[in-house]
Amino acid sequence: GEIRGRTLIDVGSGPTIYQLLSACDHFEEIVATDYLAVNREELGRWARGEPGTFDWSPFIQHVCKIEGRGEPWQEKERRLRGRLRRILPIDVHQPDPLGAPLRPPADALLSAFCLEAVSPDRAAFARALAHVGSLLRPGGHALLLGALGESFYLAGAARLPVVPLDEADVRRALADANFVLRDLRSYAMPPALRTGVDDVDGVFFAHAQK
């Protein structure tokens, strides 16, 4: 829809590309970011088409089916690889998360299950949101996907803490970071998806504008 432009920045990409599969149709350049070098290296290997990387083809095929345009999945894969031009280190707890301003500022910001997972408390979550907001141009769009009511998740044997958020926390943090909330939707986690790897109650999707 209206969310398109030259540059999209993905905050806290991890080693994954699922969150970028539809976005690559609407932006000329995608900037992926992550705190961990191992994640950035994995993304770089996938973007270069190196052998031995994770096989995202079933996910790409599924997104193409949902979008319903009849596009061959290989074409979407090729387009995303071509538009994933920068993979940068980021620290969302720093006022300049990239260490320097993004040039040009992003037209849109995407972040999926990142800020609440790396923040020790609600205040840190709100500060991190304000920090990453500095990467956007005035009028730029922020798309946030995150967990509600989650206090931990498991990564192998590691139990990693998450700050439990509710809708009011998300609304307050966006307002404090000088965003105008355009849409906020919440979804309860169905029992079939409660697999024991976390204690999440649901997920939220927020669309806000700087």
Automatic annotation (TrEMBL):
Pfam families: NNMT_PNMT_TEMT. It comes from the Eukaryota. Keywords: Methyltransferase, S-adenosyl-L-methionine, Transferase. The keyword Nucleotide-binding does not apply. One of its GO terms (biological process) is methylation. One of its GO terms (molecular function) is phenylethanolamine N-methyltransferase activity. GO terms for cellular component: cytosol. Belongs to the class I-like SAM-binding methyltransferase superfamily. NNMT/PNMT/TEMT family. NCBIfam families: GntF_guanitoxin. This is PNMT methyltransferase. The gene is Pnmt.
